[in-house]
Structure formats: C-alpha cells, structure tokens
Fold:
Amino acid sequence: MSLGWFLLIAVVALAGILVGSGFYFSWWMNRMLYVKLRDLDEIRSAGLSPARWRRGSRRRNVRKLDRLVRFVKKTNMVEDEQVRRQVLDELARIRSEWAKVPEKGDPPT
Structure:
C-alpha cells in the first residue's frame, strides 16, 4: 500500500470522527436541554423536586433549583420578558418553600 492510500484513509477516518463527534455533541446538548426543561416543568406543575432529584439532600436540590433559575434568566427559549418574570417569581416562591423544610440532622428551630 502506498503512502497516498494511507493518507487518504487517514483523512477519511479523521473526517468520520469529526462528523460523528459533531452529531454526538448535538445529541448531548439537546438531551441536556430536554432534561432541564422537563425538570422545570415538573417543578412548576407539582411544586416538588423531580423524581430523579429525590435521592439527594434538600440543600443539593435547592442548589439544583438555583441552577435552573440561572438557566431561565439566560435562555432565549422564553416567550417574552413577562413570562420569564412569572417563571422566576414562581421558582422563587417554590425555593422559599423548599428552604423552610428542615432536613434530617438540622437542629430544631
């Protein structure tokens, strides 16, 4: 096999890796976005933490909720600023309710 064939195979393999990684990255980002939106919807509809968060501590869930709040503040997937404000107000109300609930091991107040 000559050097030309080797280079051709190497270039085709590299192009395949780049295209494949591009598709994987796109799928991964869509999945991350879907999970955030699903969690946001579940929190807003029930006022409870999503089922996949329930294994964690309350403090961890509040931190995750804070991350969702930052996501809502930054995303352009909200209809308008009025809707964004309503969602943020609702999340702030839910966060304050979650923060009031004592966690196991917390001293009584």
Remarks:
- The chain has one domain: 3-100.
- The mean pLDDT is 86.
